[in-house]
């Protein structure tokens, strides 16, 4: 079994990018340990604070954010960072080549119930001669990402990573702390009978999504002519991992529940990195109107609708949106 550094070097990863990825993973190993300690390390439960998006922060959100932020800024490998848990971008080394956007602990409501959580990250090149304090350096469409990945803290700790040469899966060997290559190239099956959506929002969806899901639920007696199964982990990182492993469709569509917040998932550190991983594994990642990786971001914490996964099923869903 091969370790991460030689695999990435074979893929043509530069020394600097490899160092940056290893820096992120060093923080993730520490997060993995803290998550694994659970109640023993006193990190479960919420803080009294909210992030800029009005969400109550879990203690593990704050801790994971601090770990990633400190290690990245101290490393000198990043020009700036953007995080779900930071109101604004944070400037780093003015001479560094890369910028990183991350969700330090996706699905953090799962921490208190010992269920799946993960870290999602997106690496982009900083524009030449740009000011590290200028948040516009993050306003790049997702197809410009040079690397994207997530670390899933589950029964085992798993890394899905792409540098644009396919999506590879690594498993953390906790006996010596190395990420080992356990799946050379993830390939999302084109067809599926599985979908993931928070069905409690059904009455708030737009007609296209209502019609699509109604047809899935009608099973072999409906227009799709087959029965579908449904899953919902409440952590995108867990749902996308299942899609990478065995296919499926995952969506968090637009809804009218809160008129000020038509979308839930964040573009820069959730939708974009997941879209790159999914496309690199042969799947599709779309909003219903456009390919996620084509969106020109307007702000750091921008939200989008997301439909991703098995090619033929995503295309079927998009058919309802035309
Ligand atoms: P956090 O990153 O704030 O924990 O949110 C997780 C998430 O954005 C995404 O990972 C899930 O798919 C989604 O929320 C779950 O949303 P519901 O609360 O509607 O189930």
Task: Kindly describe this structure.
The chain is an alpha+beta fold and 322 residues long. It folds into two domains: 4-183, Fructose-1,6-Bisphosphatase, Chain A, domain 1 (2-Layer Sandwich), CATH 3.30.540; 194-321, D-Maltodextrin-Binding Protein, domain 2. It has seven helices and 17 strands. The strands form four sheets. The chain has an eight-stranded mixed sheet, sandwiched between helices. Strands 12-11-13-17-15 form a five-stranded mixed sheet, with helices on both faces. A two-stranded antiparallel sheet has the order 1-2. The longest helix is centred in the N-terminal third of the chain and has 23 residues, at 15-37. The N and C termini lie far apart (46 Å). The relative contact order is 0.13. 1,6-di-O-phosphono-alpha-D-fructofuranose binds next to strand 5.
């Amino acid at each position: 079994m091969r370790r991460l550094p030689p695999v990435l070097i074979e893929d043509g990863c530069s020394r600097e990018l490899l160092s940056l990825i290893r820096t992120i993973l060093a923080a993730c190993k520490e997060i993995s340990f803290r998550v694994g300690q659970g109640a023993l390390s006193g990190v479960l439960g919420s803080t009294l604070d909210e992030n800029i998006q009005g969400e109550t922060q879990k203690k593990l959100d704050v801790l994971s954010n601090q770990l990633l932020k400190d290690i990245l800024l101290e490393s000198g490998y990043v020009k700036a960072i953007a995080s779900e848990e930071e109101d604004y971008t944070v400037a780093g080394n003015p001479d560094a080549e890369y910028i990183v956007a991350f969700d330090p602990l996706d699905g953090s409501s799962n921490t208190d119930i010992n269920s799946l959580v993960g870290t999602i990250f997106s690496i982009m090149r900083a524009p030449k001669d740009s000011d590290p304090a200028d948040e516009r350096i993050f306003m790049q469409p997702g197809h410009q990402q040079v690397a994207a990945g997530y670390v899933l803290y589950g029964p085992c700790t798993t890394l899905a990573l792409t540098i644009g040469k396919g999506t590879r899966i690594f498993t953390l060997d906790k006996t010596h702390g190395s990420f080992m290559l356990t799946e050379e190239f993830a390939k999302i099956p084109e067809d599926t009978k599985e979908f993931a959506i928070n069905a409690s929002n059904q009455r708030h969806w737009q007609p296209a999504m209502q019609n699509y899901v109604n047809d899935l639920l009608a099973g072999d007696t409906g227009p799709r002519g087959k029965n579908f199964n449904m899953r919902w982990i409440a952590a995108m990182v867990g749902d996308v991992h299942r899609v990478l492993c065995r296919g499926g469709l995952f969506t968090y569509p637009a809804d009218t529940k809160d008129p000020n917040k038509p979308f839930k998932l964040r573009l820069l550190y959730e939708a974009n990195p997941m879209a790159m991983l999914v496309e690199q594994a042969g799947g599709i990642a779309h909003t219903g109107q456009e390919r996620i990786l084509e969106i020109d971001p307007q702000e750091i914490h921008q939200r989008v609708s997301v439909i991703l996964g098995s090619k033929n099923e995503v295309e079927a869903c998009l058919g309802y949106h035309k």
